[in-house]
Specification:
It is found in: Cytoplasm. By secondary structure, this protein is of the alpha+beta class. It contains 13 helices and 16 strands. Bound molecules: 4-amino-1,4-dioxobutan-2-aminium adenosine-5'-monophosphate and magnesium ion.
Length: about 450
């Protein structure tokens, strides 16, 4: 017999038929006469109830059906007698595929702390919370590809190992096959990376943007969606050392086009979640954050505020709130400032543009004022920066001058500069931090709980 998943069984289309269910036991309760076994198989947050007549099974075999065990159940799908479910399975055969020792299985009771669950990342997907989060994460990945595919953007795979520090976006992880205990040395005593695997120093990428620009200058509209790595020592609820980023890059877009795309894209993703992840969102809304669904609907239904950095600084300087970090024109905004603008002042998502050039990356298009660049950050409630992007400097001389001014090794970027030499065109793009999106959509409080295997300082278990 073919296995039917719980999500489909619960729809009741197989009512009256004999069915085969496979999954993991969440709970078992009952008495001398009857056992009720709740089984989940990951296809939905809901469990299906299996009813086992104790007389019909020998007691020994029912004993092994404990929380966490994996079972295969053959039985008839019937209308449920009890409350709480519409259908249930009247069991005929129950096979225990995998035992779970009740003495040592860690997920015995409900209500484990998220911190504890992080220590058992190999088992936490079996909880309602993480099942919901990872199903939503899947739906959001699919929605990203759907959005861009439907718009005629091409998915481009950019390299994970890079020979250039894309943008000084933070500390990088070195990739090497040299013997760290005894590396080859040059005459001056420095490590001789010419003997390394690639004949030069290489790192894990912090962004696929620069290679994305190469593709946009040929394919028009592209996006990347891949892992990125930053070795910054930030132990916050919004930073990971390994995270996923979506980076669209578009020929012939200016900053205004870029903002429009970012807003439309985010609204599409949130609406997709609302329409396709109803049960999981409802669970998270009820369990963790009663405002979650309201907040998601609010984002879909309201226009994002567009604001100049300079105006934002004025607002922050006259704010009644005391900030830990003072604000002056020229300082980078901290998360407390971003959240003040979004949550207190405008009470909606904000797109901040035209930042001072010295706090932004070398490739951003310089404005006529000589002080600012066409940068854009999208700020979200509860998150702060969810997207960072810009129009790019397409003028060869201006870009080369900026690279020199900032002391960046131009020789590593020769190919990037050549894009401005051969058929240059105005273009723009942005990066959406995938886990920050998932944080927002799920309402979870810590970024370590929205990626299956989080990487952060002093932690690379699993
Ligand atoms: O603002 P960032 O550094 O921009 C770039 O990397 C550009 N190359 C993007 C582009 O224009 N194509 O990072 C983009 C986004 C941030 O807005 C944030 O959402 C996320 O990536 N991000 C992180 N997410 C988790 N952990 C970290 N350590 C992150 N650093 C950035
Ligand atoms: Mg940024």
């Amino acid at each position: 017999m073919k296995r039917i998943k719980v999500a489909e069984l619960l729809q009741g289309t197989a009512l009256g038929q004999e069915v085969l269910l496979k999954g993991w036991v969440r709970t078992k309760r009952g008495n001398k006469f009857v056992n009720f076994i709740a089984v989940n198989d990951g296809s939905t947050i809901n469990t299906i109830q299996v009813v086992a007549d104790v007389q019909q099974f020998n007691e020994e075999s029912l004993k092994d059906i404990t929380t966490g065990a994996c079972v295969a159940v053959t039985g008839t799908l019937v209308e449920s007698q009890g409350k709480g479910q519409s259908v249930e399975i009247q069991a005929k055969i129950i096979e225990v595929i995998g035992l779970a020792d009740p003495e040592t299985y860690p997920l015995q009771k409900k209500g484990h702390s998220l911190e504890f669950l992080r220590e058992i990342a190999h088992l936490r997907p079996r909880t309602n919370t993480f099942g919901a989060v990872f199903r939503i994460r899947h739906a959001m990945s699919y929605a990203v590809h759907k959005y861009f595919n439907d718009k005629g953007f091409y998915y481009v795979q950019t390299p994970i190992i890079t020979g250039s520090d894309a943008e000084g976006a933070g500390q990088m992880f070195r990739v090497t096959t040299l013997d760290v205990a005894n590396p080859p040395k040059t005459e001056t005593g420095a490590v001789d990376f010419s003997q390394d695997f690639f004949g030069k120093t290489t790192n894990l990428t912090v962004s696929g943007q620069l290679e994305g620009e190469v593709a946009a200058m040929a394919l028009g509209e592209i996006y990347t969606f891949g892992p990125t790595f930053r070795a910054e020592n930030s132990n916050t609820t919004r930073h990971l050392a390994e995270f996923w980023m979506i980076e669209p890059e578009m020929a012939f877009y200016d900053l205004a086009d870029n903002m429009e795309l970012a807003e439309d894209f985010l609204k599409f993703l949130v609406l997709y979640a609302l329409n396709n992840c109803k049960d999981d969102l409802q669970f998270l809304n009820d369990m963790y954050d009663k405002e979650l669904l309201n907040r998601l609907n609010f984002v879909v239904n309201n226009n994002f505020e567009r604001l100049e950095y300079t105006q934002a600084v004025e607002i922050l300087k006259t704010a009644k709130q005391k900030f830990e970090y003072p604000v002056e024109w020229g300082t980078d905004l901290q998360s407390e400032h971003e959240r003040y603008l979004v949550e207190k002042h405008f009470k909606k998502p904000v797109i901040l543009i035209n930042y001072p050039k010295h706090i932004k990356a070398f490739y951003m298009k310089q404005n006529e004022d000589g002080k600012t660049v066409r940068a854009m950050d999208v700020l979200f409630p509860g998150i702060g920066e969810i997207i960072g992007g810009s129009q790019r400097e397409e003028n060869y001389e201006k870009l080369a001058a900026r690279i020199q001014e900032m002391g960046i090794h131009a020789e590593e970027l020769w190919w990037y500069l050549e894009l401005r030499k051969f058929g240059t065109a105005p273009h723009a793009g942005f990066g959406l931090g995938f886990e920050r999106l998932i944080l927002f959509v799920t309402g979870m409080g810590n970024i370590r709980d929205v990626i299956p295997f989080p990487r952060f300082p002093k932690s690379a278990e699993f």
